[in-house]
Design brief:
The structure holds two protein chains of two kinds. By secondary structure, chain A is mainly β. Chain A contains no helices and eleven strands. In chain A, the strands form two sheets. In chain A, strands 2, 4, 5, 9, 10 and 11 form a six-stranded mixed sheet that branches. Chain A has a five-stranded antiparallel sheet with strand order 1-3-8-7-6, with no helix packed on it. Chain B is an all-beta fold. Helix content of chain B is about 0%, strand content about 50%. In chain B, the strands form two sheets. In chain B, strands 2, 4, 5, 6, 9, 10 and 11 form a seven-stranded mixed sheet that branches. The chains are: A mainly beta, B mainly beta.
């Protein structure tokens, strides 16, 4: 069974900082890895999808990397803004889709 | 429709009652997933359909939970003899095929009194 771990569980940073969120998984036989954002009381919004053959994917200030062999992915957020405050979830997609517990990010003005 | 929809958005029921939660995936999506999310936790996998069949139901917590997808589109999650511990947000997602990008619905908030 795929186990997904996200570190840290919570992170608080001042506005403008660059930051890295980590996701690790136990079974490297995956198709894709997808990062989501979830605002309090809301559903999940897809941020980035990295296919297993890719190493990086970028969208605006977000950059996600994937090292399948070591079971790791990172989400890099550049020049963080208060509007980035949310919970960030990684989902590992193999024959099913398993989530980590998320990193709760607070960006202070 | 344009996205994944779930009905009802909120459901309040009494302990011991039966509930059905509905998910309408994006048209043409063959893969459909159900999750349960408690406050402060990540989504907990329940069941995954590929077409009409349950490809993986290992996440269903016990035999009070059952899900169907008879025509390979709409899915219904059924919970019998609800317990207070079943209270959570139930999320549904669909993807074009197994392994491709997943899209989530807004969820159904279930409260068991």
């Amino acid at each position: 069974k795929q186990e997904v771990t996200q570190i840290p569980a919570a992170l608080s940073v001042p506005e403008g900082e660059n930051l890295v969120l980590n996701c690790s998984f136990t079974d490297s036989a995956i198709y894709n890895l997808q990062w989501f954002r979830q605002d309090p009381g809301k559903g999940l919004t897809s941020l980035l999808l990295i296919q297993s053959s890719q190493r990086e994917q970028t969208s605006g200030r977000l950059n996600a990397s994937l090292d399948k062999s070591s079971g790791r992915s990172t989400l890099y957020i550049a020049a963080s803004q208060p509007g980035d405050s949310a919970t960030y979830l990684c989902a590992v997609i193999g024959n099913d889709m398993r989530f980590g517990a998320g990193t709760r990010l607070t960006v202070k003005p | 429709g344009a996205g994944v929809s779930q009905t009802p958005s909120n459901k309040v029921t009494e302990k011991g009652k039966y509930v059905e939660l509905r998910c309408d995936p994006i048209s043409g999506h063959t893969a459909l997933y159900w999750y349960r999310q408690s406050l402060g936790q990540g989504p907990e996998f329940l069941i995954y359909f590929q077409g009409t069949g349950a490809a993986d139901d290992s996440g269903l917590p016990n035999d009070r939970f059952f899900a169907v997808r008879p025509e390979g589109s709409v899915s219904t999650l059924k919970i019998q003899r609800t317990e207070r511990g079943d209270s959570a947000v139930y999320l549904c997602a669909s993807s074009l095929q197994s392994g491709s990008k997943a899209f989530f619905g807004p969820g159904t908030r279930l409260t068991v009194l």
